[in-house]
């Protein structure tokens, strides 16, 4: 799937990096899928990837509205009730979250090279703590973390709010968006990064329709495929960590 970046030499050098989390650094998207399949099965409906693509990366209530409306169960289940029911199941699953392949290597590389990086995730504080509780070492290396319930994030992705807020909080103040590289897996996140005038590497789930790849500057099958030199960054010391 790796689709080489085009016109790398024409870009401003990357000085800062922003990471999404769910489905990009942590393998948590499968939990949402599992729970949503269980809920829809009660209404004799199936959960498919075209619906998931519309939900990914959004704030919880926004995704919930898409879920009940698009699946046609809105008359039987409100978005708010869906979230309450989903929450109980997710609470048990989130603490088992695993890091995605290549996530630890990339974060430790950026840290070692002194390249500032942060996290910008639609996840709210309570879920963030559950999801990351086994991975404190990796997430503690972030310069800062912007969550979905941050007061500065008025609108969820594809609005650029969260990435603009993240760029402002690096040491020294706001960073030129053209020098920021965002890592995302979700179509709404890719669009949010482009709306913020940042470059974006997409690492999508292979089940996501390839029509969603078009807006990304680079598409990779895995973080393991990332080549820092494509973006004017120093090379990895070791090809595989």
Automatic annotation (TrEMBL):
UniProt keywords, alphabetically: Hydrolase
Domain of life: Eukaryota
UniProt cross-references to PANTHER family, sorted A to Z: 2-DEOXYGLUCOSE-6-PHOSPHATE PHOSPHATASE 2 (PTHR18901), PSEUDOURIDINE-5'-PHOSPHATASE (PTHR18901:SF38)
Protein name: (DL)-glycerol-3-phosphatase 2
Organism whose genome encodes this protein: Ziziphus jujuba (Chinese jujube)
Lineage: Eukaryota, Viridiplantae, Streptophyta, Embryophyta, Tracheophyta
């Amino acid at each position: 799937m790796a689709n080489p970046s085009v016109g790398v030499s024409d870009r401003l050098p990357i000085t800062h990096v922003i990471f999404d989390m769910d489905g990009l650094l942590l393998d948590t998207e499968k939990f949402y899928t599992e729970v949503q399949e269980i809920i829809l099965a009660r209404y004799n409906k199936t959960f498919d990837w075209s619906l998931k693509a519309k939900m990914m990366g959004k704030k919880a209530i926004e995704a919930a509205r898409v879920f009940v409306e698009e699946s046609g169960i809105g008359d039987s289940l409100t978005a708010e009730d869906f979230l309450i029911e989903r929450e109980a199941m997710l609470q048990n699953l989130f603490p088992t979250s695993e890091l995605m392949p290549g996530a630890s290597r990339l974060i430790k590389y950026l840290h070692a090279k002194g390249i500032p990086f942060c996290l910008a995730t639609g996840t709210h504080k309570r879920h963030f703590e559950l999801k990351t509780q086994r991975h404190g070492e990796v997430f503690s290396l972030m310069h800062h973390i912007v969550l979905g319930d941050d007061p500065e994030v008025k609108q969820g992705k594809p609005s650029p709010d969260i990435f603009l807020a993240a760029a402002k909080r690096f040491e020294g103040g706001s960073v030129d968006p053209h020098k920021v590289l965002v890592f995302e897996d979700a179509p709404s996140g890719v669009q949010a990064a482009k709306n913020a005038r940042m470059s974006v590497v997409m690492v999508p789930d292979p089940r996501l329709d390839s029509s969603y790849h078009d807006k990304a500057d680079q598409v990779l099958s895995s973080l393991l495929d990332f080549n820092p030199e494509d973006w004017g960054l120093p090379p990895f010391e070791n090809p595989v960590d």
